[in-house]
Amino acid sequence: MNYKKTFLSCSTFCIMFQLSAQLVLPNFFSDHMVLQQNDSIALWGWDTPNSPIEILTTWDQKSAVYTNDNGAWKIKLKTNKASFEPQAIEIKGSSKIKLSNVLIGEVWFCSGQSNMEMPIKGFKNSPINGANELIANAKNPYILLFNTERQGTLTPETNVKGTWEEADYKSVSEFSAIGYVFAKKIFENINTPIGIIEASWGGTIIEAWIPKDSLVQYSQVKMAKNLAENPMERKRPTQIYNGMIAPFKDFTIKGLLWYQGESNRNNPEPYKNYMHTLVNSWRSQFKNNMLPFYFVQIAPYAYEKNRETPAIKAALIREAQLQAANEIKNSGMVVTADVGDCNDIHPPEKILIAHRLAYWALAKQYGFLQLQYQSPTYKNFSITDDQIKLFFEEENNGSFQGLSSFGNDLEGFTMAGEDQKFYPAEAIINSDGSVTVTSNQVTKPVAVRYGFEDCFKGTLFDTAKLPISPFRTDRWTN
Q: For the whole prediction, is pTM greater than 0.85?
């Protein structure tokens, strides 16, 4: 089944349910859905204006509410602890809807561009390593997948097109590799039903995922007044938010996963601020200002060679992502310095990337306190004669276990003097977890960079083999 067809505006849908005067729910409230455990979750829909709605659940929640003048209604339900026992919800209005095989567990929402959208089966000529094994072992009625179809609109919508499906060889092969493997890893460790919602669209800029009222502060962002004739091009600023994120307003989730940035490489300067704005606006929508937000740094790729983009631009996007991770509370970033492909913008090592996302969630949300989850970050440096010594830090519950190259030579370091010209440099890891950098072409060093280009191979890790993000000690413009 192809979940990525673009469909018409939900405005037609809204008019239809008003005319039919029949009880209607958003498509993500359906059989096989997962509700967030131990929480107060919102349930909503539409029916005849000013009419009563009754809700009864098998976990003994009874509630009643009236529709408003426009026929809309919303109510809060308390959920119990996670269980593998299927539940049901019955909603009575002008008609009756019964939702069956409802599971209570953990719900995560994943979004972004093509590297998040990339399904287990891969793209044409772009594989996912280990895909066959994942598909062969996909059957699991306690991992539920909701794949949101593409849609871009001028105003916020109230519904999306998609269905909840149990994980099996067919549904998994079409689903986001990052999203599914993350869900699988969480399930294997906490033994709880997992719901994963995907809303992603390849080739999209971050501005398309941000609501209009949050984007107006950026005068450089131009918003379209009309939709493109081709539905596949309806991905201008705010349009994808309107069509694919806004409909989930008030849906209760555990956290957010994000993988995007490649399409913003030509304009990296405002990206950090855009990240702040996206996170703040999404947290506001989901009514949780500390909602976990875990994201992936863009991987090494030869943008200058293959996309005619100066190599420094990708490095600046990675730098902006690193800065955002350090500044945004309750966020975390997965570094991909070791898994890129210079000739494929879609890294095949999606399993490893998804596991790194899961480490954040397992450590922060699920109590796996001994798990190392955060890559060490560059802290500061000192200069002694012709050497620069780099110092690092990492959170990981207060434990810094040092660095390793895992038996390989350290590569990707460059050094410059006051002339701001960078030359290849040698680096060694010291016993105190610092790194000493030298270059026989620079006698009076001023600055060091590591992996600060479009494509490189990360060689510096912590002891859990989490790679160090590319960084620089300077703030030069070249």
A: yes
